[in-house]
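Q: Could you fold this chain for me?
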Amino acid sequence: MNFIEQLRIHMWDIFVYAFAAVTIIQLLYYAGFFRHVAFFQPKEKTKSQQHPVSVIVCARDEAANLAHNLPGVLVQTYPTTHEVIVVNDNSIDETKYLLEELRKTFKHLQVVNLDYEAKLIPGKKYPLSIGIKEARHEVVLLTDADCMPASEFWMQKMQDAYTDGIEIILGYGSYNKKPGMLNKLIRFETFHTALQYLSYALAGSPYMGVGRNLSYTKRLFFQNKGFSALNHVTGGDDDLFINRVATKHNTAVVIDPDAVTRSEPKTTWSDWIRQKTRHYSTGKFYKLQHRLLLGLYAFTHFLFYPLLLLALIANWRVALGLFVLRAIVQGWIFYKSMEKLNEKDLWPWWWLFDMWMFVYYLIFAPALWTKPRKNWN
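A: Sure. Below is the predicted structure, expressed as structure tokens.
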């Protein structure tokens, strides 16, 4: 009997072994990483510090978003010195006039108007760099024009995580709840991404943050020469910068309902796909260990359901047992994590969204090799 014939005879056993291996790897991710968010408990502090904070918002033609969201940033309850800097990046709408009116009421609002483009520096990195340079305070807190803090204590909660040695604070940027399945899918994908980057940071391997809710020190920014190493990439002002400078010693995580920011999600499939394609185009620039860590999880996640079907044909008892074991662990981790991140309404759908991720990987995997667009909003 030659090798081909032996392989054909044992093919179904191979499917069962492969499914078992994929399931075990998935369980290791849930037990080793994702449990950190699910069972997160903030460390008790003997005293609360209040650092002077500079909030920075970059905006290009975002007058409507600023009118709706910026007041939520400006009225934060924060007794210590703070400022809000809006970098108006070559807007041609009513942004300039709106900000002038807001400055009459809010004296801590600072406006930086840019009326020229930075050549050879695509994306948001140049206006953000200008905002950080103009910031008066050491702690900078970043969000976007289309984001609103979930509470008046957002600034307080985010800066309170700074302790000795901490230079980066990662927060959660969620999307508003709307009717429809697309909204649920967008919010689940956002939750799933946050589950990874927050868990990996808590496990000592931070690899990204989101510019909708992110803080770091000016010293860290300038010690690493800002975004100079990333100027050839359109995006990366949040995830790639954090990927380069974050360590297990200088990074902290804030998981608190009051410390979340909320944004309006895309309302059409095409807009959402374009947005996610742009986001994923920076993934190929991550450090090797992070690409391997993320890639192994995504690859085994992608293979799980096709191998399940094949394994059920070969040995349904073993396949069903492994499937149920993963479902119990995954469902429990998702429930606790969604509870922590205020996304509990998604939990009854988690099993459907988990299967949807097979299609999701097919749609967005090519983004890892595509060239990103030059504009940033």
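A (continued): The chain has a mean pLDDT of 91.
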